[in-house]
Design a protein that fits this description.
- With 118 residues, the protein is mostly beta strands.
- The chain is 0% helix and 53% strand.
- The protein has a six-stranded mixed beta sheet, with no helix packed on it.
- A hairpin with a 4-residue loop joins β7 (70-75) and β8 (80-85).
- The relative contact order is 0.33.
């Protein structure tokens, strides 16, 4: 049974930072492209960032709204994906969801982790 467990959300003031974590259970995170989605209040689910590895080459993509402020990374020894979020803005307030793209575990589903920026 494959599962993604998100953590690290919280409440911060604008300009603050948070790091989200996502642990893969039942599969090896290195075997899938990974990513983060979010759903802001009243908005549709949106893809925030993706991470893929091809040997020693890492490909990272970001939505324009978070580019330069968010950094995605992965620790394959821990099967864990991270999203470092700096200079947070009130519009970053959302529920954040981890995704395993190659396993079709995508979109805003599951428990997620809530980020509130005031």
């Amino acid at each position: 049974h494959v599962q993604l467990v998100e953590s690290g959300g919280g409440s911060v003031q604008a300009g603050g930072s948070l790091t989200l974590s996502c642990t893969a259970i039942g599969f090896t995170s290195a075997d899938s492209d990974m990513g983060w989605y979010r759903q802001r209040p009243g908005n549709q689910c949106e893809l925030v960032s993706t991470f893929s590895a091809d040997g020693s080459t890492y490909n990272k993509h970001y939505a324009d709204s978070v580019k330069g402020r968010f950094t995605i990374s992965e620790d394959i020894s821990k099967d864990t994906l991270y999203l470092q979020m700096n200079n947070l803005k009130p519009e970053d307030t959302a529920a954040y969801y981890c995704a395993a793209l190659d396993l079709h575990l995508t979109g805003c589903r599951g428990q997620g982790t809530q980020v509130t920026v005031s």
